[in-house]
């Protein structure tokens, strides 16, 4: 196995604005991958529930929202398997490339008039492809730098900007294309975006040197047969269960969503319990794990609200918002550009504030509490908009813009802080695996959303937004009061 020093030495260390040359490859690969994903996601919900005469599939709106939530949850869950495949079989470079190919094929499937069958086939391809690409491309970025390289944090910040630039531009372009030429043309733009990303990666991958070229923990010859046999048996069992439930009429979207919701809650619960009970976890680490639990729960609450931007809020924009500016119509998909736009604008401001405050800044639990206040406010502002506008009337789109703005303030308080806290609170023996736990918070949130979207169709909009917003604020208050106790349990970690 290659050493860290050998890998870093093989990478051209200058060539992209003072950073390793390989950062150029990864920046634009991720730019185009996120361009393709967020472009597709910006119009997918509308494609599912728009009438066939309008170019959609004509699905029930509740069913469309459930499918979107399941889809999002499985995408986050797939990163665990994708990371394992890279670590043990492919290496991160090949995992990224093969993942990109599957994502592109998924978008191509959507760009063809294949109906619901093509929709589900594309989702399977994109879930597998994103699981291979998303966690591993970030890992390759880390391999470009030595552990003590002062450029490392800056490099990840540049990489993060690439993600948000792609996510900002794609809904605008894909949404406009869908407006002019239909949904399949919009999905074709997403496919072309991923193709460009693959070309960039392939042409410039020599800049990566040996970074990600080999599995970090490859399967030994004796392990291969046992592992592949286990996976094969599991696949056959799952297939049999699927066939039996389908033949007996029990394989429905509702039942499948309940399964995903159950897994979304159970997997992180079992994961935390396993680490806590492990003899490799010492007393201080057990205390830190206990401190992490309320943070994790609050993260699930936050992402449950934030991730509804592509489901409940997207349908609200489409059906309950005045999108006409004179004779010009604002496309609903364009609202999906607000989140990355606000992040690009505000992330440097938050970085400056934390640097300025230094030790005087709020603790990690207090930042999480503040993030829940902003998330709750983003839904409570929707209640105010509906009440002030009048029941059934189309609301001013600026209310929705304000809602997106508030939740982004919360995201900047929680997302980077949560990543950092996860790495610092992780037991040493589970340092790598604990990063997967952080992403499982988003998976759990989306899995829970698969049930929440059912409630949205049954209650009034003010009740839905008001109750969820109120719960978020309440949890924020609870966390604020618990923060001194949580900070003590973190045993010196801030």
From TrEMBL:
Domain Major facilitator superfamily (MFS) profile, residue spans: 22-487
InterPro entries assigned to the protein according to its UniProt record, in alphabetical order: Dipep/tripep_permease, MFS_dom, MFS_trans_sf, MFS_Transporters, POT_fam, PTR2_symporter_CS
Top-rank taxon: Bacteria
Keyword Transmembrane helix (UniProt): yes
Compartments it resides in: Cell membrane; Membrane
Membrane topology summary: Multi-pass membrane protein
Molecular functions per Gene Ontology: dipeptide transmembrane transporter activity; peptide:proton symporter activity; tripeptide transmembrane transporter activity
Main location: membrane
Gene Ontology BP, a term: tripeptide transmembrane transport
TM stretches of this protein: 35-52, 64-86, 95-112, 118-137, 158-177, 183-203, 228-247, 253-277, 289-306, 333-355, 367-388, 394-414, 435-456, 462-482
Cellular component GO terms held in the UniProt record: plasma membrane
Alphabetical UniProt keywords: Cell membrane, Membrane, Transmembrane, Transmembrane helix, Transport
NCBIfam families membership: yjdL_sub1_fam
Family designation: Belongs to the major facilitator superfamily. Proton-dependent oligopeptide transporter (POT/PTR) (TC 2.A.17) family.
The protein's name in its UniProt record: Peptide transporter
């Amino acid at each position: 196995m290659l050493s860290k020093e050998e890998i870093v030495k093989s990478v051209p260390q200058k060539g992209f604005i003072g950073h390793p040359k390989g950062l150029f490859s990864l920046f634009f690969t991720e730019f185009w991958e996120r361009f393709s994903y967020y472009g597709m996601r910006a119009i997918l919900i509308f494609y599912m529930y728009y009438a066939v005469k309008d170019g959609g599939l004509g699905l029930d709106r509740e069913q469309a929202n459930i499918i979107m939530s399941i889809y999002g949850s499985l995408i986050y869950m797939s990163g665990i398997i994708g990371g394992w495949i890279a670590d043990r079989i492919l290496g991160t470079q090949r995992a990224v490339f093969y993942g990109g190919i599957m994502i592109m094929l998924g978008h191509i499937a959507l760009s063809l008039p294949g109906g619901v069958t093509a929709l589900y086939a594309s989702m399977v391809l994109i879930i597998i492809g994103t699981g291979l690409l998303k966690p591993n491309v970030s890992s390759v970025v880390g391999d470009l730098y030595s552990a003590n390289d002062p450029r490392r944090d800056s490099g990840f910040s540049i990489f993060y900007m690439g993600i948000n630039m792609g996510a900002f531009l794609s809904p605008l372009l894909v949404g406009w294309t869908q407006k002019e030429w239909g949904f399949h043309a919009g999905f074709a733009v997403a496919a072309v975006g991923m193709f460009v990303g693959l070309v960039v990666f392939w042409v410039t991958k020599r800049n990566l040197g040996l970074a990600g070229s080999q599995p970090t923990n490859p399967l030994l010859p004796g392990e291969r047969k046992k592992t592949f046999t286990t996976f094969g048996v599991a696949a056959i069992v799952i297939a049999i269960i699927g066939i039996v439930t389908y033949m007996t009429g029990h394989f429905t979207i509702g039942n499948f969503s309940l399964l995903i919701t159950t897994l979304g809650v159970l997997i992180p619960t079992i994961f935390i319990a396993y680490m806590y009970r492990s003899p490799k976890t010492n007393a201080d680490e057990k205390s830190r794990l206990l401190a992490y639990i309320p943070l994790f729960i609050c993260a699930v609450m936050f992402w449950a609200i934030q991730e509804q931007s592509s489901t409940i809020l997207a349908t609200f924009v489409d059906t309950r918002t005045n999108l006409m500016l004179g004779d010009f119509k604002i496309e609903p998909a364009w609202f999906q550009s607000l989140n990355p736009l606000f992040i690009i604008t505000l992330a440097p401001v938050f970085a400056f504030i934390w640097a300025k405050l230094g030790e005087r800044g709020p603790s990690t639990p207090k930042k999480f509490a503040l993030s829940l206040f902003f998330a709750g406010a983003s839904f409570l502002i929707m209640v105010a908009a509906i009440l002030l506008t009048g029941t059934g009337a189309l609301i001013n789109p600026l209310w929705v813009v304000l809602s997106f703005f508030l939740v982004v303030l919360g995201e900047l308080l929680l997302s980077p802080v949560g990543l950092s806290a996860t790495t610092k609170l992780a037991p040493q023996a589970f340092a790598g695996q604990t990063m997967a736990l952080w992403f499982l918070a988003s998976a759990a949130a989306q899995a829970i959303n698969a049930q929440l979207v059912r409630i949205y169709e049954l209650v009034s909009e003010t009740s839905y937004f008001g109750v969820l917003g109120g719960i978020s604020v309440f949890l924020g208050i609870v966390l604020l009061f618990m923060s001194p106790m949580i900070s003590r349990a973190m045993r010196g970690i801030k």
